[in-house]
Amino acid sequence: MSQTECQKMNDIDMYPDRIAELYKNKTIFITGGTGFMGKVLIEKLLRSCSGLKQILLLIRTKKDKKPEDRIKDIMNDPLFDLLKKCRGPDIIKKVVAIPGDVTLPELGISKEHRQLIANETDFIFHLAATIRFDEHLKKAVILNVRGTKFMLDLAKECKKLIIFSHLSTSYCHLHERVLKEKIYPPPADPYQVMKTVEWLSDDIIEDITPKILGDIPNTYAFTKALGESLVADQMDNLPAIILRPSIVIPVWKEPIPGWTDNINGPAGLLIGAGKGVIRTMYCNSDGYADFLPVDIGVNAIIASTYDYVTFGKRRIYNLTSSSEYKISWSEIIDIGREVIEKKMPLNNVAWYPGGSMKKSRLVHNICFYLFHILPAILVDALLILLGYKPVLMRVQKRISKGFEVFEYYANNQWDFDNEDSLKAREILNPKERQIYKLDGDGIDYVDYFTHCVHCTRLYILKETDDTIPAAKRHMRNMWYVDKICKVTFIVGMLYLLWTKIIVPTFSLFV
Question: CATH no. for residue 232?
């Protein structure tokens, strides 16, 4: 390290970390801590605000696993390796399980635990929600709306509460092409919707869902808007803030570049295309979406509490990036192709990665049937003949369902005004800006997506690094297969054109 760099480090160390001080000896209650963003939030709080007293984590029994055992499983994830190395293995003992479930009355929390939360909690982070766009309305309302109401009821009981942070989404008011950092009216009365789903049968709710949603494309956006309105209604009674992250994507910088526990969003598109399964998409390739690396989002969640506690001016935070950084769908595909074809190929690809985005729905539909459905039918027929179960048509149905969601968001454009959130950065000193990085300065998209594919390969697909050389050889072989098939197809079509059309037509004039 140069003398100049050392001097910069010393200069930064001179500043205090006021955010860590805010959390010192404080108790934090978190819902949704087993989810993607929740895990990263817990890791960051323990690592950067290690002076906190404890994290009370609402967690339900799942598959006969007790909440305590589920926490142990979570802490064994590589995501927490850096934490245990920096703060020692005992740091995870600060995470205490609170058995419960946001779908249950009173959150399914015992009287003893409810009393503990009421007496001890200083901060609440309500992250629990279903993020499935095609979730049944009843389940989405129970989780995203009623669960939020139950959390607000609990917050009112907390004697020491400093702040209630509610995680919403920047895509919950889709009629607003420019989303500002302000409260918007809900698309329906949340209390009436809750009563409706509680009293009516599942079949009736399914039948009336389109009428309830109106012009809102999915239950996720609808219920998140309702949940947001419940929090807004209580802002005069509670120190509550609303956080609206955009499309949350894998870790950019820390603790593991590229880490994720799912293949949602653009990562899923890259993996599907990289496996040779996705060959066409109906999308305006020049358009862009708003992406937020999860570590930047988590830093913003933590820093926003300091901003509100210190100044108390801002109540709505748009955690978005497109006002500063834009990357188009075509750029994502081009980068992904470079990464998967040359740097980080996937194992056992079904076909050489290819295809493209189509601006014409007709062209997309033709390509979908030619390159998705037809090959799936042929392969499944072959599997049946060999005595195996057909699989590809089932996969293609899931892809088709995913396309329905993707196409709506990819072919519409929203922008986000996060002027107030940008101003909140200005109150941070150089040390805090380094620890809780809130901007995308210095991002290299090729490097970032390489890490994303690598982590997805390693942690989701369970494809270890020692298989990369074989994957490269297989990718090279599939390139030849792809070219041979294309040439064969073209030659066959020319042969048919010659024998069935040109020759017969020519013979008529001879």
Answer: 3.40.50.720
